[in-house]
Amino acid sequence: MELETPEAGAGQVRVRVRAAGVQPYDCAVRAGWTPPGVAPGLPKIPGNEFAGVVDQVGSGVEGVFFGAEVLGFGQVQAYAEYVVVPATHVTAKPAGMPWEVAGGFTAGAQTAHIALNELRIGPGAGSIRSWARSDQPGLIQQPGPERPKGASQQRPGDTLLIHGAAGSVGTVAVQLAVLWGARVIGTAREDNHDYLRSLGATPVAYGEGLLDRVRAVAPDGVDAALDGAGGDALDVSLELVKDRDRILTLVEHDKAADLGVRLTPPLRSAERLAALVDLYEKGDLRIHVRRTFPLERAADAHREMETGHGRGKLVVLID
User: Fold this and answer.
1) What is the pLDDT of residue 126?
2) CA dist list (Å): 153 to 114, 127, 180
3) Are strands 247-249 and 224-227 parallel, antiparallel or unpaired?
């Protein structure tokens, strides 16, 4: 599809996209869902995470410059040669970070971090300023979100159950939780168990008997659960975790309110992203890219995403 090249307005930057991550969110957009705040109608281009080179800077933008290599986020439009986003939605791409990793970094990493904050695992969003980078060439730090009201600070030693632990959000959540002192139990297919062990998690197989298998490896109980699988996984979490306020689902949105469990709030920020990139640079966080696709095969990427199987990230590359 040929469209006019978008122009950066006031406070915005235009990025020549090199890579864009693929998510279930994108599949929903392709199927006709309109995200909140996005104009209805067609064309509607999927893609809400990307990496590329800034090639136009709108008026009033400070600290983001022409030619800067960045990674960032929006709501839609990233499956394209160019995307326009607020300048506050990008952060610097390290020179050593491959484009495919940068393109698939933003959504999974930020979703995992936000979810763990909601579950009261880790230092919390309010402390991002203490561990964010301050030396980004071509960029300045933006104010980050405060930790949700009533949430406590880091709880090292908690046992965290992560369903779908080998997925793009799950793998980051495992690494962050382990880094912050939690014991992690991760559910996944058996062919991903060695991978989860390499990240520091205790793997448990999906399927019938899941509740008993988790109890066998966590005889003292489970303090919190992150559901990235839905269905029986959420039921098991409800059985194991006493405090429903420490259960969060990424999948069962329609059930969350009735069950009294959490969803991830929209708290993505450039500052949060920069802090996570810093962890990547330090070697504390790694991103597994399962497969890449050229832009003209984005439909194949969606077909693979919709199988619900596989380890790590799918990424669309744009020449």
Assistant:
1) 45
2) 14, 9, 11
3) parallel
Q: How far apart are CA 49 and CA 71, in angstroms?
A: 8
Bridge-based pairing of strands 224-227 and 202-205 is unpaired
| 270's tokens | 């450039």
285-307 burial: b if 16+ Cβ within 10 Å, else e: bebebbebbebeebeebbebbee
Question: What does 37-69 look like in DSSP terms, one character per residue?
Answer: TSPPSS------EEEEEEEEE-TT--S--TT-E
Positive or negative, the CA dihedral 277, 134, 91, 122 is: positive
pTM beyond cutoff 0.85: yes
CB 264 within 8 Å of CB 23: no
CATH code for the part of the protein at 110-259: 3.40.50.720
Alpha-carbon distance 204 to 214, whole Å? Answer: 7
Please report the pLDDT score of residue 44 as a whole number.
Answer: 77
pLDDT along the chain (319 residues), means of 10: 88 97 81 68 83 97 96 89 96 97 96 96 57 39 39 69 94 97 96 96 94 96 93 92 95 88 92 97 95 93 81 91
- CA 243 to chain CA centroid, Å, is 24
- Residue pair 82/5 in contact (Cβ under 8 Å)? The answer is yes
pLDDT at 149: 43
Determine contact, residues 11/58, Cβ cutoff 8 Å.
yes
Instruction: Please give the Cα distance from 259 to 289 (Å, whole number).
Output: 34
Q: What angle do helix axes 168-179 and 106-118 make, rounded to 10 degrees?
A: 50
Per CATH, which fold does 12-105+287-317 belong to? Quinone Oxidoreductase; Chain A, domain 1 (3.90.180)
Domain ranges of the chain: 12-105+287-317, 110-259
Cβ pair 92, 51 in contact under 8 A: no
Residue 154 structure tokens: 């880091």
Which among 143, 151, 145 has a CA at the least distance from the CA of 125? 145
